């Protein structure tokens, strides 16, 4: 599903991650590591949001050679999402659904499942942190992704929403969608088995 080749990410002269070669099979992965280990940096690199050295290939696609195709199938929900406060949740959901070519009714269904539909018409500036998180998870699941990156998805989520998210992850995974989920919290029972990936000493160790 994903191959890293001579991957290296530095900020200035400080190397944060160095992965000479790693191949990951399709699946659901739990990305772990101490604070500052590089989990968000890895996710942003895979999502194509920050530059890096080397190559990351997802299902034969590479951000440099196939940017449009790659970003259509690699979805990302960041740990601490920020959106322009003057937009409504509905504006963002419609924009994502159109640009990700979401199947008809999918966005509405995700919003209802995650309970976002009740405040979709309000401006994002009025959202609590949990409401913003739920919206970001809906946006991260929209479309026909082959890989979904969820950075700390459980932060600020209430227990009910945590269970619903885990159900959705299971449904997507049953259809062959891969996930990389970073979380300091354990996932609740009911989640399918996840392969653990540890970031240690600037590289990924598989469990
Ligand atoms: N834009 C940046 N410029 C410089 N250094 C950065 C930048 N972003 C992150 N770093 C550094 O990169 C390292 C990895 O940060 P990152 O946010 O990826 O860690 P993390 O594993 O997600 O941490 P946490 O569990 O605390 O969220 C840290 O040392 C951090 O200070």
Give an overview in words:
This is ABC transporter ATP-binding protein. GO terms for molecular function: ATP binding. It holds the Pfam family ABC_tran. With about 210 residues, the chain is α/β, with parallel strands linked by helices. It has a single domain (about 25-50, about 60-205), classed as P-loop containing nucleotide triphosphate hydrolases (Rossmann fold, 3-Layer(aba) Sandwich), CATH 3.40.50. It is built from 6 helices and 10 strands, in the order βββαββαβαααβαβββ. Strands 6-7-8-3-9-10 form a 6-stranded mixed β-sheet, sandwiched between helices. Helix 4 (about 105-115) packs antiparallel against helix 5. The two termini are about 20 Å apart. The structure holds adenosine-5'-triphosphate. Adenosine-5'-triphosphate binds next to helix 1. Adenosine-5'-triphosphate binds near residues 11, 16, 37 and 38.
């Amino acid at each position: 599903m994903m191959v890293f080749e001579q991957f290296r990410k530095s900020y200035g002269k400080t190397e944060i991650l160095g992965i000479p070669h790693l191949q990951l099979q399709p699946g659901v992965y739990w990305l772990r590591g101490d604070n500052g280990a590089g989990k968000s940096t890895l996710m942003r690199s895979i999502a194509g949001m920050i530059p890096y050295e080397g190559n990351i290939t997802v299902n034969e696609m590479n951000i440099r050679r196939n940017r449009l195709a790659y970003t259509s199938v690699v979805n990302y929900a960041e740990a601490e999402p920020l959106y322009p406060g003057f937009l409504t949740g509905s504006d963002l959901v419609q924009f994502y659904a159109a640009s990700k070519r979401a199947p008809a009714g999918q966005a509405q269904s995700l919003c209802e499942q995650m309970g976002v539909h009740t405040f979709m018409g309000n401006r994002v500036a009025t959202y609590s942190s949990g409401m913003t998180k739920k919206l970001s998870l809906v946006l991260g699941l929209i479309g026909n992704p082959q890989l979904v990156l969820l950075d700390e998805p459980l932060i600020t989520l209430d227990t009910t929403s945590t269970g619903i998210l885990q159900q959705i992850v299971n449904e997507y995974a049953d259809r062959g969608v891969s996930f990389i989920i970073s979380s300091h919290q354990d996932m609740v029972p009911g989640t399918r088995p996840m392969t653990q990936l540890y970031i240690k000493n600037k590289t990924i160790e598989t469990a």
